[in-house]
Amino acid sequence: MSRIVSLLVFSTVFSMLALAGSWSGKLLDANCYDQQKQASACSATSETTAFALDAAGKIYKLDAAGNSKASEALKNRADRATDPAKPESKEVMAQVTGTEQDGTIAVESIDVR
């Protein structure tokens, strides 16, 4: 019996890992995108609270935890860390790892450039 339970747990863990994915693209202000429907007009800023990712033309929203992680990463990104007085670049690129369901990514990690 314990062997069957171990096998079920093992297969569940690996099936969850198989669903994890990685996306790269432009970080957007999700509220702006919902109104404008144009990724080019909705770059994320340090004031953004809801984020989306434009990955190869497909828009994914980030979950609540992902929004917090993106906000923190945006404020601490490498080009600002060396000179905080330097103005933010217009286009913010990000690498997001997590699981996607119905167009929303449950973010495990995010790297903002």
List keywords for this structure.
single chain, 113 residues, alpha+beta, OB fold (Dihydrolipoamide Acetyltransferase, E2P), 5-stranded mixed barrel, elongated
Quick structural gist:
With 113 residues, this protein is an alpha+beta fold. It has four helices and five strands; from the N terminus they run αβαββααββ. The mean pLDDT is 84.
Q: Helices and strands: which structural class? A: alpha+beta
Distance between the termini: 50 Å
Rounded mean pLDDT is 84
Structural Rg: 17 Å
- What are the low-pLDDT stretches, counting only 5+ consecutive residues below 50? none
Secondary-structure arrangement, i.e. CATH architecture: Beta Barrel
Structural domain tally: 1
Instruction: Give the beta-strand count.
Output: 5
CATH-derived topology: OB fold (Dihydrolipoamide Acetyltransferase, E2P)
Number of helices: 4
Overall shape:
elongated
Order of SSEs: HEHEEHHEE
Largest sheet: 5 strands, mixed, barrel
User: Assembly type of the shown chains?
Assistant: single chain
CATH class: Mainly Beta
Q: In what order do the strands lie side by side in the largest sheet?
A: 1-2-3-5-4
Strand content: 25-35%
Can you give the helix content as a percent range? 25-40%
Commentary on this structure:
- The protein is elongated and about 60 Å long.
- It is 36% helix and 33% strand.
- With 113 residues, it is an alpha+beta fold.
- It has a 5-stranded mixed barrel.
- It has 4 helices and 5 strands, in the order αβαββααββ.
- It has a single domain, classed as OB fold (Dihydrolipoamide Acetyltransferase, E2P), CATH 2.40.50.
